[in-house]
Amino acid sequence: MSAVLGADHDRDRVITPPSTFDVLGVPVSAIDPDVAVATIEGWIDAGARQYVCIAGAHGVIESRDDPELLKSFQHAGLVTPDGTPLVWVAWLRGLSHVRRVYGPDLMLRMSGTSVRPGRRHFYFGGNDGVAERLRDVLTASNPGLQVVGCLTPPFRAVTPEEDAAMVAAINAARPDILWIGLSTPKQDLWMLRHRDQLQVPVTIGVGAAFDFLSGSKKQAPRFIRENGLEWAYRLCSEPRRLYGRYSKIVPRFLQVLATEWWHRSHMT
Question: Could you tell me where the DSSP H helices lie in the chain?
Fold first, then answer.
């Protein structure tokens, strides 16, 4: 009897949303990868309907000018610190336990832990053929992984009928986890707008993870990712597409970090 009570207590603990720390109005979850995985698995077991935003400096800064994007973060079950700069903000606030929860790493880990309990996955997003390549890569490296659907929406605006058909296809496949690869802010807005239509325990927006894990784009080396310089690597890889984005984001977020450091240094 005590073992059963203990199991119930553990499940309640992981379903309870972790604490957050505020970054420009965005409630970033004060978590590490272990807590993220345990929370997601708890939601699946409970049949919850939650969505997860993988947030970096880009999304935080964009939400300053986009009230609906900010709303999507505020209503998410988790807003993971995907970017190292967000982890630095947590550390400056004394939250030394916070670690980066990086979209591609989370997807890899959930794919590995999903095999034995038979979790069902659906991939929604990417360019033509990317979701299918992603399925092939992850099922090859995780024998027994159940991928129950792949769907690439058009890059144009969809009609209400097309949108309803895509949601119906997802629900009919009965996934436990719906992975969204549409990039920020598109994927975050999509999750907010469709949360009441989806019959899926957990929806996770992982953006470029589709490209990185499928081999469609090259990922930054780990030492670059771990030292907060992934933005520079990606800018060098795609300067025409990303220059406008980073020319706005980097200075504004450096100001956030400087402000946090100043407050921290004057409080001690």
Answer: 2-15, 33-46, 57-63, 67-75, 84-92, 103-114, 130-141, 160-173, 186-194, 209-214, 222-226, 230-237, 239-267
CA neighbor of 180 nearest in space, from 162, 159, 194: 194
Sheet of 146-151, strands arranged across: 78-81, 50-55, 202-205, 177-181, 120-125, 146-151
Q: Which two tokens stand for residue 18?
A: 């972790």
Q: How far apart are CA 160 and CA 153, in angstroms?
A: 13
Residues in contact with 126: Cβ distance below 8 Å, sequence separation at least 6, in sequence order: 134, 152, 181, 210, 211, 214, 216
The C-alpha atoms of residue 167 and residue 194 are separated, in whole angstroms, by 8
Half-sphere exposure of 244 (CA within 13 A, CB side): 3
Secondary structure (DSSP) of 138-172: HHHHSTT-EEEEEE---SSPPPHHHHHHHHHHHHH
* DSSP-derived secondary structure letter, 82: -
Amino acid sitting at position 225: R
- 40 neighbors 202 (Cβ within 8 angstroms): yes
Q: Kindly report, residue by residue over 96-109, the tens digit of the pLDDT.
A: 999 999 999 999 99
Q: pLDDT tens digits, residue range 121-168?
A: 999 999 999 999 999 999 999 999 999 999 999 988 999 999 999 999
